Amino acid sequence: MKRLIQAALPPAVLFGLVILAWHFAVVGFAIKAFLVPKPLSVLTAVIDGRGELLQAVGLTAGAALSGFASSLLIGTFIACLFSQSGMIRRSCYPYAIFLQTVPIIAIAPLIVVWFGAGVGSVVLVSFIISLFPIITNGTTGLLAIDSDLLDLFRLYHASRWQVLWKLRLPHSVPFLVTGARTSSGLAVVGAIVGEFFAGYQAEKHGLGYVIMQAAGFSQTDRLFAAVLASTFLGIAIFGLSTIVGSTVLRRWSDSQ
Amino acid sequence: MSLSVGRGELISLVGPSGCGKSTLLRMIAGLMAPTGGSLSVQAGSVNDSRTAFVFQDSNLLPWRTVFDNIRLPLELRGVPFDQQQVAVEESLKLIGLKPTDATKRPRMLSGGMRMRVSLARALVTQPKLLLLDEPFAALDDLLRQLLNEELLRIWTEQHWTGLFVTHNVAEAVFLSQRVLVMSKSPGTFIADIAVPFAHPREPELRSTLEFAKLTGEVSRCLREVAR
Q1: How close, in Å, is residue A158 to chain B by CA atoms?
Q2: ipTM here
């Protein structure tokens, strides 16, 4: 409990100070509300728009989690393929890097052109952006096996499949956890970017669409509320993956 | 180089670093192919699944419990689970681990305990040939002596053929029936010293004059080789 307070108190105090500074800056310099709203009006926007915001958070969270889950599954699968053949690895890895380096914002419109507006495209953008960390970390974990351990499996005539399933995959779990932690944050970014472009035809709107719309109408308080909600969503998903990850690691890791 | 080991013999290999002791052991285990010459092992030929290997590091899978680590060789061979269970329990008892240790994970164990688990994993396959590559090198001296005694007790019970690579002369003499001294590259045997002490050997053997004379002889050989 004491440790919790020690950890939570300083950032909470800082948060309060920043909010105060923000408020007095807006009031003191007479900044127009459509440029920077007062903290209080952001709070009002959150409360007034809570129905819309909650729904948006729910939709975006759903898309981000679907994108994250599919990148975890497919990324692990691709890493397994990479671990089995140096040929596949060498020929495909440059294109995996492509996933990392292509500006997602540049290809998101293309995805909408190809796959249409809607949840599917949003999930796809989220999937693409969160795939790479899983592939690299997974591949590293699958390949960085102590040679004595490989010898042990060879001594007992383990099949390729047994080596993958009973040695390489379990060994790569801590690496995948690290990758997943990075991916989870990216998946939220991907979902919101996806919604910028693909979120407008549905009846219900995700956070990305709310952000675009609020910006378009200069509803800065609503925009701030949506940004705030996106941030909390990101923190929540990152926190979730960290908690799940460290629970898994407690079982896996060599050190205490 | 030629080496013949009788069935049920326990032999130690000593020699300076880099003389190829470990390489020889790995070739016998089928983990490395000889670059020239031939190698045949009769107590279960090369690549026979009745050969077990104990590595210098305990080499346990950290995500598996002690029980799951020990049953690994049987699992890889497709032995049914209930038979695995019986074999692991026997192996645990043999190596002096408590049944409550079975659910622990390697990180919760001391170095000596980990090495015991590693030995249990090798013995669970009921090997005909046991190859040990400096298994106790990382342990403190007392622990090493205790594990030597355990290993010898198990050997007298089970009589597998054993090849033990070590840097420790006292360990080599205490454990084996013959000590082979290897010279630096090209690796050849320069001495084959018989150890005449009867079994079972008691810990007190180490403080006898005969023991000291033998370790002295082995050390002298080693010193010549190292020059």
Answers
A1: 6
A2: 0.91
